[in-house]
Amino acid sequence: MTTRPQNAHQTRLLELLRDGGPRSRAELGDLVHMSRSKVAVELDRLAELGLIQNAGLAASRGGRRSGIVSLSPSLRFVGIDIGATSIAVAVTDGELRVLGKLQEPCDVRQGPDAVLGLALTLVAKLRDQGLLPQIHGVGLGVPGPVSFREGVPVVPPIMPGWDRYPVREALGRELGCPVQVDNDVNIMAVGEQHAGSARSVDDFLFIKIGTGIGCGIVVDGSVYRGASGSAGDIGHIRVAASGPTCACGNVGCLEAFFSGAALKRHATSAARSGQSPYLAARLAEAGKVRVEDVAQAMMAGDAAAMRLVRAGGERVGQVLASLVSFFNPGLIVLGGSVPSLLGHPLLAEIRSVVYRQSLPLATGNLPIVLSELSDSAGVIGATRGISDHVFSAP
């Protein structure tokens, strides 16, 4: 079983060492407002538990030099980010620095046995590289609604066979450590909060545009999941009375108009109709059109590709304008494969719509930015979440 702290004071000390790196005992005492003797007692107990270690002496502050402490170098957390078409597995140390990462294509529709089996295979490869002497906790994200309390997906639209599958129980049994399961967009939001653009923001939205569209909502520094865990499922907000049928079965959802899957469908249509000579050439050469091809066509000045990006940005911007008026966030971060590939042209269109359609009071100091962490946001957020759990007192 993973060793855990025994009280709230020890939890706070571990969090400070995780988020700020090695610190002197005197500095830690100042930060937690505890006497040196009390800090010494708690730190000595954490050292006995194997969670921290002594790391030399600090510079003198006018008297006896204070000892420096750091998290144990043997601490290891694993982050697993399962997307609709790929899976990433990373291992971090106690300070959540990524020590190794593996990523492979993976169709989530293959079902939990196949996908989780691949995840365990990637964990084993990282262990074979000598990066996992022990696993203290695993955080995992999946592209669908999750009951966070139970650790199971609940009726996920693009994940056949996953409904109420005991993901947390299955992985915990295989790996022998605590496991935390969440929606993939939520873990990406936590990743941005820990190491990305949202480090100093307490209220923000993280928008993932990939195969589908989702929103991570952070309120007062914590992820808001809603009453049943489905908060932020903005891809299924209806934006038109008619239109393409969505994966959820409804018509006119945002996700059906603009997502990775929708963009590829629209781009293929533009290629076949002759509207885009660039995309037509890619279709003839490769037999399919990818989001990457749309990005390259747009950069080459292809008019049809630019229209697709503008139309998609307008749809997303309209939904975000409503969210801004309702939630009044301090920041919006765009992540996922589509913003990563389409970049600033998509960002500019979304910004234009949000700033034009929302009230000036809500947008007067509202940055809308691309993710700094790209495809690492999920695994970093997953390890941050499980480290919060492991570092909390039972």
Number of strands: 15
Strand content: 15-25%
The topology string of helices and strands comes to: HEHHEEEEEHEEEHEHEEEHHHHHEHHEH
Spatial order of strands in the largest sheet: 6-5-4-7-10
Computed Rg: 23 Å
Kindly report the average pLDDT value. Answer: 94
The geometry reads as globular
What is the overall number of helices? 14
**Terminal Cα span:** 13 Å
Low-confidence stretches: none
Oligomer: single chain
Please give the largest β-sheet: 5 strands, mixed
- Quickly give the structural class: alpha/beta
Proportion in helices: 40-55%
Task: Give an overview of the whole structure.
- The chain has helices at 8-20, 25-32, 36-48, 112-128, 167-175, 184-195, 254-257, 260-273, 277-286, 291-299, 303-327, 337-357, 360-363, 377-390, and strands at residues 23-24, 52-57, 67-71, 77-82, 86-92, 98-105, 137-142, 146-147, 152-153, 179-183, 204-209, 213-219, 222-223, 332-335, 368-370.
- The protein has 394 residues and is an alpha/beta fold.
- The chain is globular, with a radius of gyration of 23 Å.
- The two termini are 13 Å apart.
- It has 14 helices and 15 strands.
- The strands form four sheets. Strands 6-5-4-7-10 form a five-stranded mixed β-sheet, with helices on both faces. A five-stranded mixed β-sheet has the order 13-12-11-14-15, sandwiched between helices. The protein has a three-stranded antiparallel β-sheet with strand order 1-3-2.
- Strand 12 and strand 13 (222-223) form a beta hairpin.
- The longest helix has 25 residues, at 303-327.
- The mean pLDDT is 94.
- Helices cover 44% and strands 18% of the residues.
